[in-house]
Design brief:
By secondary structure, the protein is an alpha+beta fold. Helices cover 29% and strands 23% of the residues. A three-stranded antiparallel beta sheet has the order 1-5-4. Strands 2-3 form a two-stranded antiparallel ribbon.
Length: 113
C-alpha cells in the first residue's frame, strides 16, 4: 500500500529494476550496509530472501506516471483515500512484473535470475 505518496516514492520499483538487470546504482545501500528483503518471487511463487548491497537506478523510477497508468489500466491497482491521504493498493509482485514489462518494452531488460 502506498499511503499519501505515488510511485515516485515506491521502493518496490528498485526490486523490479534489479530483476530486470538494471546495473545503474543510485547509492544509499552498500556492501557495508546491506538491506535484507524477504518476498515471494513473482514467477516461481517461493519465498526468497535477498540481501541488497546497492539500490538500482533510474530505468522505471523516472517513469513512475507510466507505471501508475499501466497498473491502473490493467486493474491491478485500487485507489482511494484515507482521510486526506491518497492511497494506492497494489501487490508488490504486480509492481515488479510491470517494471520488468516496461524494461522489456524499452529494450533495457537483461535477465538476471
Amino acid at each position: 500500500m502506498l499511503l499519501g505518496v505515488d510511485h515516485s516514492r515506491d521502493s518496490t520499483i528498485h526490486v523490479g529494476e534489479d530483476y530486470g538487470g538494471d546495473d545503474r546504482h543510485s547509492g544509499g545501500i552498500s556492501p557495508l550496509t546491506p538491506k535484507r528483503i524477504v518476498f515471494t518471487h513473482p514467477v516461481e511463487g517461493e519465498e526468497m530472501e535477498v540481501m541488497i548491497t546497492s539500490m538500482m537506478g533510474n530505468v522505471v523510477l523516472n517513469r513512475h506516471d507510466e507505471l501508475d497508468r499501466r497498473l491502473r489500466d490493467a486493474g491491478l491497482q485500487a485507489e482511494g483515500s484515507v482521510g486526506d491521504a491518497q492511497c494506492r493498493l497494489v501487490k508488490g509482485a504486480h509492481i515488479i512484473e510491470e517494471c520488468i514489462a516496461m524494461m522489456k518494452a524499452s529494450g533495457e531488460y537483461h535477465h538476471r535470475f
